[in-house]
């Protein structure tokens, strides 16, 4: 699941720099509105908006909230199965912008399914996506309240980190070859907000294959590695294979963190919580030491992990 | 190639090898001089006290093994191309074009699916399960393609090339299928395992590859006279006392080994086995005693320089080296198609 989610984050960032909000059908939502959601971050937003019971199908990459996993799947966001979406009698398909899915989304529109394409690859896009969903589902007030609390959380994190030294951070998405988060990614924004400096900030794209030599030469002080996805994946605060480079400040000072990508790589409504987690990795003196749940998802549902049964 | 050439002498062979060794040495020096890091040859040869910023360590442990690996992979793919061209008597034969690389890719993906490939998994003494699977995939593909292309005991070159093209399409589809059924944990490894990219591995992997590749190249070099005879056709070679079937069999196995080893480490690096042997044949003539060692040296130089471009042209980003080789090789392939229409000018 996770590598695909990483690819999703990469692709959504690559293809969605300019949010082009779809013009919604002016028909008001009504009871019985059936939603199919193929965007993981949109699924979390719908949960926050209390709309879980309206979801009748999900995309292959959707895994949160866990209660959704029992619903039928309609394929990945970039190739939704049109027949399945129609079979579920969906009124709205909630997805992320994807060039690959352009034809299938257009076909779905022709066949009467409203397609809401969201851009959740960065914080402003996520805010806009939440507003779009709120407006479309007649939940503008709830969306506004959620946004206000999220904005406040982000502002607080930024203020707490302000004025502190800015450690050099290397955020690893893939290690062999080296794939990192660059400018325009939500990860880059989180690093900055949490008071760090992304050493790949001069890359050309949000996610890029980069020179290992260059990254090593920039002497990162914190390495956050989300590349290990196997069954026995490294998790926690340990150098792992990075101990080859014992001259790196991050290795010498034991500041290499192996993290489940689901905790940091998937953008969306969890950004404030993710940014605070980033803060614990970069500035423990401000945000406190990282805890176990910062490395591996807790088996228990978190604040945004309500099940369908729990939702209003 | 149409002009009469003097027979190859020991001195001629020596000169050719010496010159191309010098070219390779210059390429390696260029590869070591420049990269993503700031250090170069000076830091490598004259270590400063302390090396607190790790410059020399980066050069020794990232750049040096990568340059050596590029040389080995380039040499392996080029020699594979040269001997396939000798066997099939067609300059368009190349592991990539013939579909052998596609077979190796299938093997590599299957290794990831079996849990013995990918980043770190299955590694022992620098060996990766992908190497074995890629070799078996390459060998299986070549045997299959050769069987299909052989009709009534003779192998039409055009049928063979066409079969290779179709097998490439088939292997592409099969890889898409395998990606579809792969667990999502494996998808990431599959995508990166197929990318034409020279990795920075440890010296263990470099040593294992060096042993395998150099041994295969040496054995193929020892068959150089047989390849020369086979330019007369299988019948002609048989009349000269060559055991054609044995030469074919060994060439298939060793060419597949070379391709499989290269693909298992660097993914799909196309066209290098096509471009370099052909250029060398134009310059040095068709004698395989000269062509095989020079192909290794020339291919090694070519990929070292291509990889140098790939890792420096968009710093701090990198390009997959397969992009560079394809940009050079694609147009060259079309040039060959336009100028070598009969396919019988392999002399």
From TrEMBL, chain A:
Residues 34-286 form the Fe/B12 periplasmic-binding domain. The keyword Signal applies. It comes from the Bacteria. Keywords: Signal. GO terms for biological process: cellular response to iron ion. The keyword Calcium does not apply. Residues 289-312 are annotated as: Disordered. This is ABC transporter substrate-binding protein. It comes from Candidatus Polarisedimenticola svalbardensis.
């Amino acid at each position: 699941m996770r590598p695909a989610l990483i690819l999703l984050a990469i692709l959504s960032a690559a293809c969605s720099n300019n949010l082009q909000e779809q013009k919604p059908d002016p028909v008001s939502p009504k009871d019985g509105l059936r939603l199919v959601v193929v965007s993981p971050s949109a699924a979390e937003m719908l949960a926050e908006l209390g709309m879980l019971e309206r979801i009748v199908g999900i995309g292959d990459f959707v895994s949160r909230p866990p209660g959704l996993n029992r619903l039928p799947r309609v394929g990945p966001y970039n190739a939704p199965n049109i027949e399945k979406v129609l079979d579920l009698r969906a009124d709205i398909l909630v997805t992320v912008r994807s060039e690959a899915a352009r034809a299938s989304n257009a076909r779905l529109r022709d066949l009467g399914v409203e397609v809401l394409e969201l851009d959740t690859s960065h914080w402003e896009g996520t805010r806009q996506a939440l507003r779009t969903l709120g407006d479309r589902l007649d939940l503008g007030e709830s969306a506004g309240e959620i946004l206000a609390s999220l904005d406040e959380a982000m502002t607080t994190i930024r203020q707490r980190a302000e004025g502190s030294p800015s450690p050099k951070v290397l955020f690893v998405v893939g290690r062999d070859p080296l794939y990192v988060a660059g400018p325009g990614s939500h990860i880059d924004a989180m690093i900055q907000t949490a008071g760090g400096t992304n050493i790949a900030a001069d890359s050309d794209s949000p996610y890029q294959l980069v020179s290992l030599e260059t990254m090593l030469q920039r002497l990162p002080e914190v390495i956050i590695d989300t590349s290990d996805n196997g069954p026995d994946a490294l998790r926690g605060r340990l150098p792992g294979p990075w101990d080859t480079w014992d001259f790196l400040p991050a290795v010498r000072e034991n500041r290499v963190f192996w993290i489940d990508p689901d905790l940091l790589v998937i953008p969306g409504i969890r950004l404030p919580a993710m940014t605070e987690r980033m803060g614990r990795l970069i500035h423990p003196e401000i945000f406190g030491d990282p805890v176990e749940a910062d490395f591996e998802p807790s088996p228990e549902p978190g604040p945004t992990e309500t099940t369908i049964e729990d939702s209003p | 190639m149409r002009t009469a050439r003097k027979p190859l002498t020991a001195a001629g062979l020596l000169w050719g090898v010496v010159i191309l060794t010098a070219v390779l040495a210059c390429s390696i020096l260029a590869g070591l001089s420049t990269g993503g890091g700031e250090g170069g040859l000076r830091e490598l040869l004259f270590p400063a006290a302390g090396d607190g910023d790790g410059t020399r360590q980066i050069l020794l442990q990232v750049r040096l093994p990568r340059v050596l690996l590029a040389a080995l992979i380039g040499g392996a793919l080029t020699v594979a191309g040269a001997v396939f061209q000798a066997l099939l008597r067609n300059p368009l034969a190349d592991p990539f074009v013939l579909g052998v690389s596609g077979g190796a890719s299938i093997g590599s993906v299957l290794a990831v699916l079996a849990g013995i490939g990918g980043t770190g998994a299955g590694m022992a003494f620098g060996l990766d399960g992908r190497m074995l699977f890629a070799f078996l995939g390459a060998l299986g593909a070549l045997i299959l393609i050769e069987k299909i292309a052989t009709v009534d005991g003779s192998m039409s070159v055009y049928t063979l090339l066409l079969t290779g093209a179709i097998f490439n399409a088939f292997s592409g589809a099969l890889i898409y299928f395998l990606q579809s059924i792969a667990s999502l944990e494996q998808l990431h490894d599959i995508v990166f395992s197929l990318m034409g990219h020279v990795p920075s591995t440890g010296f263990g992997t470099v040593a294992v590859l060096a042993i395998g590749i150099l041994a295969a190249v040496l054995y193929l070099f020892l068959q150089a006279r047989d390849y020369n005879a086979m330019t007369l056709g299988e019948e002609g070679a048989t009349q000269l006392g060559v055991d054609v079937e044995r030469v074919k069999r060994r060439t298939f196995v060793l060419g597949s080994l070379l391709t499989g080893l290269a693909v298992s480490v660097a993914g799909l690096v196309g066209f290098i086995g096509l471009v370099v042997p052909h250029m060398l044949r134009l310059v040095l003539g068709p004698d395989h005693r000269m062509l095989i060692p020079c192909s290794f040296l020339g291919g090694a130089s070519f990929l070292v320089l291509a990889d140098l471009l790939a890792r420096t042209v968009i710093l701090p980003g990198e390009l997959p080296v397969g992009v560079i080789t394809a940009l050079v090789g694609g147009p060259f392939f079309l040039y060959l198609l336009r100028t070598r229409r009969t396919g019988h000018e392999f002399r």
